[in-house]
Prior knowledge:
This protein has 8 helices and 8 strands, in the order βββααβαβαβαβαβαα. The chain is an alpha/beta fold.
Amino acid sequence: MPPVIASHTLEIRGSTIHYLEIGDISSPTILFLHGASFTAHTWQEIGTLAYFADRGYRAIAIDVPGYGSSQSINFPREEFLGQLLAGIECDRPILVSPSMSGGYSLPFIAQSAEKLRGFVAVAPVGINRYQDAIAGIKLPVLAIWGSNDRIVSPKLADLLVELIPQAKKVILENAGHACYMKATEAFHQHLFAFLEDLNR
């Protein structure tokens, strides 16, 4: 029997947060956030969760507060990921953060980079806002953009590489802002290569 993607909820300070999970709890964890036009189910629909579970990872996709089946939160968003990691018993995951979710991930890595094994920036918003806070952080980072992104310029991938010593960039040709939708196979391959580098 292949592993099944399970739907779970947890309470964080009185708000119900929904997430999808697949893979063994003892395996390295990849935590997927999403952009404003998507939900946790997007990662299930394009095959990402199963792809990484098949390759030995625990894959978790979160409905960020106020999206999908998650309620809004009444505390600062920069505190959300710390609360979430404690709630889902997730030790140093690789965090994948597209677009709008940069509002959660960038302040988190600025304050708590040591709680992650790696950070995958998928054209997240807010890089200019947080550039001083994230400059010089000691965290492996993959900056992955679509070449045709007209919402968050691919030039910001270069900025991340300048700011963070262990950052590298990948540009997916002929893909737009949600590059994982148009170039799903290439996105999976580059993310997998990044993960395997972390394991070496």
